[in-house]
TrEMBL record:
Keywords: Hydrolase. InterPro entries: HD/PDEase_dom, HD_domain. This is Hydrolase. The keyword RNA-binding does not apply. SUPFAM superfamilies: HD-domain/PDEase-like (SSF109604).
Length: 218
């Protein structure tokens, strides 16, 4: 194991211990989500040949350090609040201070709702890695889990796919989240590898919608 890999493994163990001590978050944004985002970020960084892995590791484990519910008024500020919290936590842990601004920017820019332009390779990679979590089979599970937590319905009973002229409302109907956001994500990816992965996972979502339409018509 080279020095960089050893350093990454040591920091990952500390980040894992931090979140174990903090207790469980909601199932869509907890430690398993952080691990998957890190794995995706690392894979994208390797494919793209760029990105500071320690910055990406810290960003992956702390991008949702502050995670208000989707319908909370603070939601649009969550990534900024997470960046502030992460800077404080990482500073107290003795993380390299020269890397803290890069971590903070990557966390701030990862959020879809914040609308912050990613200016660094790490910010672009982290944004793509987090968005991959909204796609594919995992994205399906997280979408309906989150919709249920918000008290929404699975789909509109009379017009499930919004073809009858009604206004789409993903706070009320989980299936509305597909055209409003999920099916758009692949085109918004910042890296070639992120886009490739997103396109594959988007096909999973489209197959699900086709299967759902067929079953509802039976």
């Amino acid at each position: 194991m080279n020095r960089e890999h050893g350093e990454i493994a040591a920091w990952q163990a500390r980040f894992e211990a931090h979140w174990a001590a903090e207790g469980a978050a909601d199932a869509a944004h907890g430690i398993h989500h952080f691990r998957r985002v890190w794995r995706s970020a690392r894979a994208i960084a390797r494919a793209e040949g760029e990105g500071d892995l320690l910055v990406l590791l810290a960003g992956a484990y702390f991008h949702d350090a502050v995670n208000p519910p989707k319908d909370n008024p603070l939601r649009s500020r969550a990534s900024r609040l997470s960046a502030e919290a992460a800077t404080g936590i990482l500073g107290r842990m003795g993380f390299d201070p020269a890397r803290l601004p890069g971590v903070a920017h990557a966390i701030e820019a990862h959020s879809f709702s914040a609308g912050i332009e990613p200016r660094t390779p790490e910010a672009r990679i982290l944004q793509d890695a987090d968005r991959l979590e909204a796609l594919g089979a995992i994205g399906l599970a997280r979408c309906f889990y989150t919709g249920g937590r918000m008290g929404g319905s699975l789909w509109h009973a009379e017009d499930p796919f919004g073809r009858g002229g009604r206004a789409l409302d993903d706070a009320a109907y989980s299936v509305d989240h597909f055209p409003l956001k999920l099916l758009r994500l692949a085109s918004l990816m910042r890296t070639a590898e992120g886009r490739r992965l997103a396109e594959g996972r988007t096909r999973v979502l489209r197959r699900f919608l086709a299967d759902l339409e067929r079953e509802l018509a039976e």
